[in-house]
Amino acid sequence: MDFKMVMLEWRRMCDTFTTNEDDTCCENCPLRDFDEYGCDAIFSDFAKNVEWADVERVVIQWANDHPAPIYPKWYEWLKNQGLIHMGEQSGAAFVTSKITEPIPADIAEKLGIEPVQ
Fold first, then answer.
1. Under 8 Å between Cβ of 20 and 28
2. 3-class state of residue 96 by DSSP
3. What is the largest CA-CA distance in the chain?
4. Under 8 Å between Cβ of 75 and 88
5. Which of 15, 16, 26, 38 is surrounded by the fewest CB atoms within 10 Å?
6. With contact defined as beta carbons under 8 Å apart, do 59 and 66 qualify?
7. What is the dihedral of CA 81, 84, 87, 90, to 10 degrees?
8. Could you tell me which residues are beta bridge partners of residue 102?
């Protein structure tokens, strides 16, 4: 997994365990093993003393155990909504090449689109 993907998965993992309550924030986060308060990535003591390869290993393991939901492709969703009536190839050429890619999670959630898996 490249650096960008590790960081995106870390953010997704962090969002899973973050709460607005101090006493439950980061509860059960796998990175709490590194520090009693969680990853504390914003504190310099954590950044100076952590083995980043271990953090990467934990994040990758969590991501493998908790795969991100996969949403339908733009083309499939638009067709189901009755907004596109042409073949996938001509639709892709007409609208955009992105039409054959899955809808990003943040956009899908705003549109109320359920994951396909």
1. no
2. coil
3. 57
4. yes
5. 15
6. no
7. -140
8. 73
CA distances from 114 to 28, 34, 76 (A): 27, 35, 13
- The residue assigned the tokens 């609208």 is 95
Condensed to tens digits (0 to 9), the pLDDT of residues 87-100 reads 555 544 555 567 78
Helix ranges (DSSP H) in 1-117: 3-17, 44-49, 52-65, 74-80, 88-94, 105-111
- Long-range contacts of 32-40, Cβ-Cβ distance < 8 Å, separation of 24 or more: 33/58, 39/14
**pLDDT for 11-54, tens place per residue?**
999 888 888 877 777 778 888 766 655 565 555 465 666 778 88
Angle (CA) 38-107-2 rounded to 5° is 50
Opening angle at CA 111, ends 106 and 116, nearest 5 = 75
This model's pTM is above 0.85: no
Q: Are 59 and 52 in contact (CB under 8 A)?
A: no
